[in-house]
Structure formats: C-alpha cells, structure tokens
Amino acid sequence: xxxxxxxxxxxxxxxxxxxxxxxxxxxxxxxxxxxxxxxxxxxxxxxxxxxxxxxxxxxxxxxxxxxxxxxxxxxxxxxxxxxxxxxxxxxxxxxxxxxxxxxxxxxxxxxxxxxxxxxxxxxxxxxxxxxxxxxxxxxxxxxxxxxxxxxxxxxxxxxxxxxxxxxxxxxxxxxxxxxxxxxxxxxxxxxxxxxxxxxxxxxxxxxxxxxxxxxxxxxxxxxxxxxxxxxxxxxxxxxxxxxxxxxxxxxxxxxxxxxxxxxxxxxxxxxxxxxxxxxxxxxxxxxxxxxxxxxxxxxxxxx
Length: 303
Prior knowledge:
Number of domains: 1
Oligomer: single chain
Low-confidence stretches: none
Number of strands: 11
Distance between the termini: 35 Å
C-alpha cells in the first residue's frame, strides 16, 4: 500500500447486536487496559479510551433490530442491545491491527449482525478539492453495479445506500468549484433543510452530505455489517483505495466498465488502485467472491 494511502485518516461505524452497549464498551476498555464509562445523552453513549487517549464510542441506533441469544436461539431484545461502535480517527498503518482485534473480541463475546446493520467508513476530506470530489462521484457512478454485487448489499438496506443517479453525474460534470459541487449535490432539495443531520441526500453509497454539513468527511455507506475482521479490513481498504484514486487522478470517467466478466473488471480495477501482491490477497478474495467470471482472463483462458 502506498504510504499516502496507509496514512490517510478515516473513521468507521459498525452496527451490531447480540450484546449490550455496556458489555461492548467493557470489551474495548479491557483490550486497551482502560476503563469503560457511561456518557449518556440521547444516544445512551458508553465510551472507552485507547492507549493513545482517543475515545471509542458505543451508542444506540434506532434502526438496529435488537436480538440476544438464549439457548442457541436469537430472540428479540431490548434497546440496550442496539450497538453502534464508532471509532476515533484512525489510520491503516497504525490502527488496523487494533480495529481487527476489537472486532474479534466483540464477536467472541456474542456480538452478531443482521440485515438491519451496516458499516460506514468516513474518509478525511481535508485534501479534497472540487476536482477530486467530482472524480469520486464518477468512480462510484461508473462502478455502482459492480460494487452492489461485490458487496452483496442487502435489499433491506438498499434505501440507505442508493446508487448515484445519472442526473447527479451530469450536474457534477461542469462543477469546477466547491460551491458548484455543493449546489449540484443538493439540487432538488430545499435550502433550509441542507443543514439537517438526517438530510435525505446522505442515503447514498457515496455520501457527500457528511462532507458539506457534517465532519468534513466523505462517507462510504455501502457495506452490510459484519464481525469478520478480514472483511472489515477489505471494506476499509476499498474505501481508502477509491479515495486515493479520486485524490490523485487528474480525471475519472463515469462510463461503466465492461461487465461480461465481473471478476476481471474488479481485479483490474483493484490493480490500478494498487491493491496487488500478497498483502491484499485476502481483500481481493473477499471483494471478488460474489462476482461472476474469471479474474485472470477477460475472454476466457487462451488455448
């Protein structure tokens, strides 16, 4: 992985159930050798510090279908089993090992996911310009179908991570300033609603509402939740790679790639983004698993 990509800042939100927020915060604190605390508020937050003094938050999310396991069977549970893990600002180079180990420990303690749960990756927007944001829109628009299939986006969650429309791509085409990018993103929405946290525009695979009216982050929302540490790593790597491509390319096309061989299309795209070699073998496996075709040969193996 390029050093620039490995050191880009990101945050992750992982929704789950099966254990309580209290227990989830305790597990994180135990891993870092710190203490879990109850912060309260509307989201009933629990927090735990890591070894660098950063705060990991476990909070309530009303969209999660709460379950708990009794005698090997999951049954409905109370809202204390609604668990959304919100990381502090992380980097791949320094923090991926800790993130994966926390996920493993939560899973071992009984945490689970279901179709109501998702994963969101927030990418630091500090270095983005009008050009790179337009690139990002085109990258996601071009490969939306491929990403939907590769990530197996659950139909129950599709309305929370919609594909980008052709109209948006057209509006973005000549948006050469950040103000024009913003107006293109919010076209069709009432101006006075643009500052709402739960604004309707946020429910796309690529969310720019968080960039303009949130924490100045570009959010990728198209992940079903999982407590498989390897899959979470693959999701973060994909988000970082797309972000790096948007930042470093002079331009990006919204034209959809060939789809007669999905695995080949995904593999060659990942290669262009630098996801090559043994380091990313598992990531490539996770991201190509549900695609059709042959990763090595576009038109089939030569005779």
